Amino acid sequence: MLLSGLLTAAEAAVTTEDIRNEIALQIESIREQQDLAALILDSKLAEIATAHCIEMAAEGVLAVGEPTFVAPADRARAKGVTDFVHRLLVAKEATGAELQSHLQTADSLSVLTDPTMTHVGIGAFVADDGSCWLTIHMVERVITFSPFRFNSWLRAGVPRQQVTVSGHLSGEMVRVRVLFAGQEKVVAESEVDGDGDFTASIHLDKGKGLYRISFDVRRDNVYRQTNIFDYTVR
User: Fold this and answer.
1) How many CB atoms lie within 10 A of CB 197?
2) CA pair distance 125, 132, nearest whole angstrom
3) Domains in the chain and their CATH numbers?
4) With helix as H, strand as E and coil as C, how does the chain read?
């Protein structure tokens, strides 16, 4: 079903929600036709996608990342989304109905039918001229994390922290790498138990500064990066 009556800025408060709902149904239908798993709607990704729509409309530029933009993947990391693999689809059309038609193009379908994607956020914005802006932000969520646990202490006057990470995934092993001051090393490896759970302890012992922490998951004896986040020891 195509949207109708989504033309005026005065209707923006209603139409943005209508657009999101209809696009979600359309994505579900597209993936179902390809026998693909439905994507899980993620509120944090939706917030990120909406912010990107508003920024595109303000600049009048359709883009997934430009020098003057905050890249959605960077915005996601700042919001605590650690998933490493992102796919984005952006569009601008005169009406919501045309926006839905855009999703049937070959380029759009190639993104929406990516079998590795698991979660999605949909952002929409209706500009003052009535144009409809759309961002679909999808990620592959391999690890579902439990809340991180932090312990801090001083040793010889140097601040040190330990982060205990646990979560759930489909895989054999989790490897954790830490990049600090341009040097990277593997700091933890943890087997995944029969229920798909793991726990790993990460020691941040180089003092104050920014630590980039990456997670690799081993499946079929092959490691692949799945998550990344930044943490600052102050």
Assistant:
1) 14
2) 6
3) 9-139 (3.40.33.10), 144-233 (2.60.40.10)
4) CCCCCCCCHHHHHHHHHHHHHHHHHHHHHHHHHCCCCCCEECHHHHHHHHHHHHHHHHHCCCCCCCCCCCCHHHHHHHCCCCECCEEEEEEEECCHHHHHHHCCCHHHHHHHCCCCCCEEEEEEEECCCCCEEEEEEEECCCCEECCCEEEEEEECCEEEEEEEEEEECCCCEEEEEEEECCEEEEEEEEECCCCCEEEEEEEECCCCEEEEEEEEEEECCEEEEEEEEEEEEC
pLDDT digits (tens, 9 = 90+) for 155-200: 777 778 899 999 999 999 999 999 999 999 999 999 999 999 999 9
**In sequence order, what are the beta bridge partners of 144?**
168
Q: How far apart, in whole angstroms, are the C-alpha atoms of residue 188 and residue 174? A: 8
Place of tokens 């391999």: 142
Residue with tokens 């997934």: 64
- In the beta sheet, which residues pair with residue 182? none
If you search the block for the tokens 């999101």, which residue do you land on? Answer: 20
Report the candidate in 35, 51, 29, 228 with the shortest Cα–Cα distance to residue 137: 51
Residue whose tokens read 């209809």: 22
The chain-wide mean pLDDT, for the chain, equals 89
